[in-house]
Protein backbone atom coordinates (compact mmCIF):
# COMPACT_ATOMS: atom_id res chain seq x y z
CA UNK A 1 0.00 0.00 0.00
CA UNK A 2 1.29 3.46 -0.87
CA UNK A 3 1.54 6.03 1.89
CA UNK A 4 0.62 9.63 1.49
CA UNK A 5 2.59 11.32 4.26
CA UNK A 6 4.99 14.14 3.48
CA UNK A 7 7.76 12.25 5.28
CA UNK A 8 7.65 9.42 2.74
CA UNK A 9 10.83 9.41 0.70
CA UNK A 10 11.30 8.68 -2.96
CA UNK A 11 14.72 7.26 -3.73
CA UNK A 12 15.20 9.01 -7.05
CA UNK A 13 18.60 9.72 -8.47
CA UNK A 14 18.59 13.49 -8.66
CA UNK A 15 22.16 14.57 -8.26
CA UNK A 16 22.64 11.87 -5.63
CA UNK A 17 19.96 13.29 -3.33
CA UNK A 18 16.73 11.76 -2.09
CA UNK A 19 13.64 13.91 -2.47
CA UNK A 20 10.43 13.75 -0.47
CA UNK A 21 7.26 13.01 -2.40
CA UNK A 22 5.98 16.45 -1.43
CA UNK A 23 8.99 18.09 -3.09
CA UNK A 24 8.74 15.95 -6.23
CA UNK A 25 5.04 16.70 -6.83
CA UNK A 26 3.97 20.28 -7.42
CA UNK A 27 0.44 21.54 -7.03
CA UNK A 28 -1.49 21.60 -10.31
CA UNK A 29 -3.34 24.78 -11.21
CA UNK A 30 -6.81 24.87 -12.78
CA UNK A 31 -9.04 27.43 -14.52
CA UNK A 32 -12.76 26.63 -14.32
CA UNK A 33 -15.39 27.89 -16.77
CA UNK A 34 -19.08 27.07 -16.18
CA UNK A 35 -21.97 29.50 -16.60
CA UNK A 36 -24.22 27.84 -13.98
CA UNK A 37 -23.07 29.10 -10.55
CA UNK A 38 -24.31 25.98 -8.71
CA UNK A 39 -22.47 23.61 -11.03
CA UNK A 40 -19.41 25.86 -10.91
CA UNK A 41 -19.43 25.50 -7.10
CA UNK A 42 -19.53 21.70 -7.40
CA UNK A 43 -16.60 21.80 -9.82
CA UNK A 44 -14.67 23.96 -7.35
CA UNK A 45 -15.32 21.41 -4.57
CA UNK A 46 -14.11 18.57 -6.79
CA UNK A 47 -11.00 20.53 -7.81
CA UNK A 48 -10.07 21.21 -4.18
CA UNK A 49 -10.63 17.58 -3.25
CA UNK A 50 -8.35 16.58 -6.13
CA UNK A 51 -5.65 18.78 -4.60
CA UNK A 52 -5.76 21.42 -7.32
CA UNK A 53 -5.14 25.12 -6.88
CA UNK A 54 -8.01 27.09 -8.41
CA UNK A 55 -6.51 29.98 -10.37
CA UNK A 56 -9.86 31.48 -11.34
CA UNK A 57 -13.47 30.67 -12.15
CA UNK A 58 -15.55 32.11 -14.98
CA UNK A 59 -19.12 32.16 -16.23
CA UNK A 60 -18.29 32.72 -19.88
CA UNK A 61 -15.81 31.51 -22.46
CA UNK A 62 -14.15 34.84 -23.30
CA UNK A 63 -12.99 35.54 -19.75
CA UNK A 64 -11.90 31.90 -19.37
CA UNK A 65 -9.78 32.18 -22.52
CA UNK A 66 -8.16 35.40 -21.27
CA UNK A 67 -7.45 33.81 -17.87
CA UNK A 68 -5.95 30.69 -19.43
CA UNK A 69 -3.68 32.79 -21.62
CA UNK A 70 -2.58 34.95 -18.68
CA UNK A 71 -2.09 32.25 -16.05
CA UNK A 72 -0.87 29.22 -18.04
CA UNK A 73 -2.77 26.65 -15.93
CA UNK A 74 -2.07 22.91 -15.89
CA UNK A 75 -5.77 22.03 -16.24
CA UNK A 76 -8.96 23.51 -17.62
CA UNK A 77 -12.53 22.55 -16.79
CA UNK A 78 -14.76 23.90 -19.55
CA UNK A 79 -18.52 23.76 -19.93
CA UNK A 80 -19.45 23.21 -23.55
CA UNK A 81 -22.38 25.62 -23.64
CA UNK A 82 -21.48 29.09 -22.30
CA UNK A 83 -22.19 32.69 -23.30
CA UNK A 84 -19.89 34.56 -25.71
CA UNK A 85 -17.70 31.55 -26.53
CA UNK A 86 -18.27 27.84 -25.97
CA UNK A 87 -15.86 25.71 -23.97
CA UNK A 88 -14.94 23.87 -27.17
CA UNK A 89 -14.09 27.16 -28.89
CA UNK A 90 -11.92 28.15 -25.92
CA UNK A 91 -10.11 24.84 -26.12
CA UNK A 92 -9.67 24.98 -29.91
CA UNK A 93 -8.23 28.48 -29.64
CA UNK A 94 -5.74 27.48 -26.93
CA UNK A 95 -4.69 24.33 -28.79
CA UNK A 96 -4.12 26.37 -31.98
CA UNK A 97 -1.86 28.79 -30.08
CA UNK A 98 0.32 26.11 -28.48
CA UNK A 99 2.42 23.28 -29.78
CA UNK A 100 1.99 21.03 -26.75
CA UNK A 101 -0.96 19.39 -25.00
CA UNK A 102 -0.99 21.69 -22.00
CA UNK A 103 -3.20 22.58 -20.42
CA UNK A 104 -5.03 19.29 -19.99
CA UNK A 105 -8.75 19.83 -20.47
CA UNK A 106 -11.86 18.27 -19.02
CA UNK A 107 -15.05 19.18 -20.88
CA UNK A 108 -18.39 19.22 -19.06
CA UNK A 109 -21.58 18.86 -21.10
CA UNK A 110 -25.27 18.09 -20.77
CA UNK A 111 -25.01 16.05 -24.00
CA UNK A 112 -24.00 12.42 -23.65
CA UNK A 113 -24.42 11.43 -27.30
CA UNK A 114 -21.53 10.24 -29.45
CA UNK A 115 -21.42 13.29 -31.77
CA UNK A 116 -21.00 15.58 -28.73
CA UNK A 117 -18.24 13.41 -27.28
CA UNK A 118 -16.52 13.33 -30.68
CA UNK A 119 -16.71 17.13 -30.92
CA UNK A 120 -15.01 17.36 -27.52
CA UNK A 121 -12.29 14.97 -28.63
CA UNK A 122 -11.75 16.86 -31.90
CA UNK A 123 -11.43 20.12 -29.96
CA UNK A 124 -8.63 18.56 -27.92
CA UNK A 125 -10.38 17.49 -24.71
CA UNK A 126 -8.53 14.97 -22.56
CA UNK A 127 -11.70 13.95 -20.70
CA UNK A 128 -15.46 14.38 -21.14
CA UNK A 129 -17.95 14.40 -18.26
CA UNK A 130 -21.72 14.57 -18.69
CA UNK A 131 -24.15 16.39 -16.44
CA UNK A 132 -25.41 15.43 -14.00
CA UNK A 133 -22.20 14.19 -12.38
CA UNK A 134 -21.18 13.41 -8.83
CA UNK A 135 -18.46 15.35 -7.05
CA UNK A 136 -16.76 12.02 -6.36
CA UNK A 137 -16.61 11.11 -10.07
CA UNK A 138 -15.42 14.57 -11.08
CA UNK A 139 -12.76 14.54 -8.34
CA UNK A 140 -11.51 11.21 -9.67
CA UNK A 141 -11.35 12.48 -13.26
CA UNK A 142 -9.51 15.64 -12.22
CA UNK A 143 -7.03 13.62 -10.14
CA UNK A 144 -6.37 11.36 -13.13
CA UNK A 145 -5.75 14.33 -15.42
CA UNK A 146 -3.45 16.01 -12.91
CA UNK A 147 -1.44 12.80 -12.58
CA UNK A 148 -0.86 12.75 -16.37
CA UNK A 149 1.08 16.02 -16.28
From TrEMBL:
The keyword Phosphoprotein applies. Residues 29-146 form the Response regulatory domain. Residues 1-25 are annotated as: Disordered. Residues 14-25 have a biased composition (Basic residues). The modification 4-aspartylphosphate is found at residue 79. It holds the Pfam family Response_reg. Gene3D superfamilies: 3.40.50.2300. SMART domains: REC (SM00448). CDD domains: REC_OmpR (cd17574). Keywords: Phosphoprotein. GO terms for biological process: phosphorelay signal transduction system. The keyword Transport does not apply. This is Response regulator. It comes from Pseudoclavibacter endophyticus.
